[in-house]
Amino acid sequence: MKKYINKFFVLLIALPLMQSCSTDDKTIDGVLEGVTNGAVLRTISATNTFNFFDPNDTRFIFDISLEEQDAQNGDLIKEIRLYQSFTDNLDDGTDNSKDEVLILTESGSGLAVSDFGLPRLDFSATLADAVANNGLNAGEFNGGDAFTFRFELELTNGNVFSNNNATGTVSGGSFFSSPFIYNVGLKCIPITPFPGEYTLDLVDSYGDGWDGAFITVTIDGISTDYTATGGGTKHVVTVPNGATELIFTYTPGAFEGEHTYTIDYDALDGSDSLEAGKDGPGPAPGEIFLNICL
Questions:
Q1: What is the pLDDT of residues 75-125, one digit of tens each?
Q2: In degrees, to the nearest 5, what angle opens at C-alpha 128 toward C-alphas 127 and 131?
Q3: Which residues face 102 on adjacent strands?
Q4: In the 8-state DSSP scheme, what is residue 289?
Q5: Could you tell me the sign of the dihedral formed by the alpha carbons of 168, 172, 176, 182, in that order?
Q6: Reduced to 3 states, what is the DSSP secondary structure of residue 155?
Q7: What integer best gives the mean pLDDT of the chain?
Q8: CA–CA separation, 66 vs 74, rounded Å?
Q9: In what order do the strands lie in the sheet with 222-226?
Q10: What pLDDT score does 65 carry?
Q11: Do the bridges between strand 39-51 and strand 181-187 make them parallel or antiparallel, or are there none, so unpaired?
């Protein structure tokens, strides 16, 4: 059995990145021809952030779509199982980590069908769901902790696949990205603004400014744009006590590979100082969600 499994994954490693659906289909046919024991759970999409400040926030969830592929276009799948564990990363002398527990079992016949005609599994969980799954209580989890979701795929012949028998290339960033395991961190994304000073350190690696890119900071409806000149510029934005809205947004320009930024937070009373956000080179456009775990 191991010989066949290795053969399957070696063949997957040899695949080039696919450029079209028709190319994908032809390549898959060639790879799986004569192979009876291999299978992958390809990641179609995944969102993996929880907000500690709001366990029911549906913007920050674990949301994943997976597509099962095997030698018979999904006919070999028996079931998919999902396990969840919790890691306490707070160094306070008490370890509230939890071993993995089974939270989902889905038979092959119960799966949806993907755009490619293959079995598809869609799953989502809020932080509240994850906390309940591992039996955690308030005070036992905090910002910086993490949940781990591990998928297990069983075929009709009894072969089982998970993260412990997927090669690095298959589990990496190719078309066949199939890690079987996903870590979801707890960030502290403020619901209402934390008053303080926010230092925007904007850097351009080439040294000619941000080429049209800028960060917009909106405080209670008043927006101000900040950009970098030369090799970089620092801006200090003060958010007063009583502010009810604070939004950071990144708008890209040209030569995005040269742009990076860091946002540092300092409390007005000097009691707290930390890095609240960073991105780049090539920062993601749109709203910047801060991470302030005090």
A1: 999 999 999 999 999 988 999 999 999 999 999 999 999 999 999 999 999
A2: 85
A3: 83
A4: P
A5: positive
A6: strand
A7: 87
A8: 12
A9: 222-226, 214-219, 246-251, 286-288
A10: 97
A11: parallel
